[in-house]
Amino acid sequence: MAGRYGRALSPQRPFTARFRLMVDRPPQPRPVKLPVQFRADGANWYVQSKHYRVCLARSGGGELRGLWTARGEQPIIEHARTYTDYGILADSTDSLGRKSRTTGSTEQDLEPDCWIEPGEGELRLRFCGYMRQAHRWRNIVSPRVQYETVWHFDGSPRIKVEHRARPLIAPQPQCKAFLAQVFSVPETQAWQATAGGRGYSGGADQDPSGRVLQSKLIGATVDNMELTTARGKVRLEHLRGWGETPQNVFLLRSADSPTYTMFLAMLDGQPVDLDARWRGYAYDLVVRGR
What we know:
- There is one protein chain.
- By secondary structure, this protein is mainly β.
- Helix content is 1%, strand content 51%.
- Strand 21 (248-253) and strand 22 form a beta hairpin.
- The mean pLDDT is 91.
């Protein structure tokens, strides 16, 4: 090769070589001014701005453990998770031969893959993993159900969220199953929603227990939903599918308290050709004080 030559080595002919080892300087960290405050504390990650405070379950599938207004003492959304309890997972059988539904949930995933992606205009937190059983040592469910959640924090009052899941299964024609992300909203007093250009409303003083609003019965996609509570207001805006078309959005009122649960159901019992394609929602979350 040009500029190079070889040398034969022999014990009878000593050979001395000199060389210089060059090591590049390690890249210096580049400070980034985040639009929000971020803190990692064990199993939880905390995000705070002048509009809200958020607690995400680092060891619980990246789901929401609490959403407060900036000065609120109690969370407006107390708990969130994504789960399936029929149609995808086989029933469990105990030692007496009794069968029961198997529930798989994101909140049972203690070790999801996590990414912290800071930027000048946005902090993005991403979680990926597999649903696990609530019992039986939190084993990964079989067949596996994969999920992905992306949180976008840009300092504005809006928190942008993308969430989806998929069962890793062979195609199953005309399958009936349930798969949904849910948010628990305690002390709800009233709610409003828009779907297909029409407005809908209700409240704790008039709604019966059970489902009180369902997009699949309305025949239109729910675009926005607002719940007024004794702790403040939470609004779900720009709701849209992320992946295959979701089946239902509905509110569920608890039988023994004015707690409402928002269900974003990717699957809700309607026959569908089920396979490993992603199904989910993208939306904005906004909270305000009373």
